[in-house]
Amino acid sequence: MSDEGKHLPGLGSSAHIGAVNEVVIESAGTLHGQLQRGLGRAARRAAATTGVAELVFDCIRRDPRWDRQVESRALYYARLVVDLELPVGPIAEHLREPAGGDEWHGRLAVDVLADLVRLSRREAAGPLRECAEDGEQWFEAVDALVGLRDPELAEGLDGLVVARCDDGDLDWLVADPDNPVLRAWAGRRPQIAAALGRRRPGGGTGVPRPRRQGRTGGDRSASSESELLDLARRPDDDGAVAAIFELGRRRTPALLDLAEELLPQSDGRWGGALCRALREYGSEALPRARAWARAHAGCEALALCILSRHGTHQDIPILMGELEAAVTREAWGAAASPVEGLGRLRAGEAVPLLKKTWTDSSYSYLRPRVLTALTRTAPHTAETYAVEALWDCEDDTRRVAVSSAPFTDDTRLRFHRLHSDPAEEPQVRAAASDRLMF
Description:
This protein has a two-stranded antiparallel sheet with strand order 1-2. The two termini are 40 Å apart. Among the domains are: 14-148, no CATH class; 347-438. The longest helix has 14 residues, at 316-329. The protein has helices spanning 31-37, 40-46, 52-62, 74-83, 89-96, 107-118, 125-134, 138-147, 158-164, 167-173, 180-186, 190-199, 225-232, 239-249, 254-262, 271-278, 286-295, 300-310, 316-329, 336-344, 351-360, 367-377, 379-389, 395-404, 409-420, 426-436; strands at 14-17, 22-25. By secondary structure, it is mainly α. InterPro entries: ARM-like, ARM-type_fold. Residues 194-231 are annotated as: Disordered.
């Protein structure tokens, strides 16, 4: 969401480019850097640290997420606001600031305010309503208020919604036809009632969906191998994906040659299809994957995907080398496959590197994989990280942690909070409930 202004990096800092402005990620050894990464250790340290309020507000303003589309921070920061008894005023003030062309401006703040309401800080609904009525992020604020499912908090906004939203916007808002806010609005607004009707069984839906990269091209099961290979070589043809998948379904050895031919020159349009088709070849693809990983000729991402799923202990050095390179370059997206592979192979020699990845990575979406890998490779060492992860910003990390953290007085209290927290994700609450039963 937003990363306002520019902040000069200090010693040990690293930077990445956000949606518009430069976001500086401070050293993982500092409390600020840990808060930016959403690490559990920062949430636990915060209460005993002076000056932490400004660090929390800075994170909400600048939005330090490495990948804003998949990473979570809102509930993490909202819990800090509650635990530290911080005011909502600075968050509201941020929403009033001009976006300056940044489409992500204020979105994290909107999500934090919504989670604050879920955490019984109902005064946070005031800035949300103000933003819905007059703010640049008005649609996100309306969506957040609808998501709170409280008609009182959204009272009177239906007129604004109907005036500003076209059918596509309305279809997006009415994702849950049983939402009491939407039912109340539908009783007064025919446009909203019609959108709900499109959502119900048999009514269809106009909800925008991610654009697919071409059509699948229909059933290709009757095509010959040579026909499929010819079609797959035409990246401007919508049937190429269907051809690739059919070749993969047949486990055609020639698809390995095709990948070697296409991937180095591909613009990426069909790379994902080749990865999905070939990763199911299992051990058949290992010799070629090992060669690709060593050659670095454009097929290494596919090679790592195959090695992480099907590699053997002889592939540990390759996976270690790739993870070390990713950590050095801070190419956190490239770290996922090596982390998963090292965990699957229970590579004990990878533990120091996995620990460094856990601490240094600014990509919180990676941490569930790292924790799973640590749990498999070094269960005793992983206990410390599992306890920390009970306070992590990612719900998948918390879910893995609940299942693997040792049962102590400290963790039992945390399990109780996670289980009873209305803002927590259902999977985490269920996992905490299971641990408390035994």
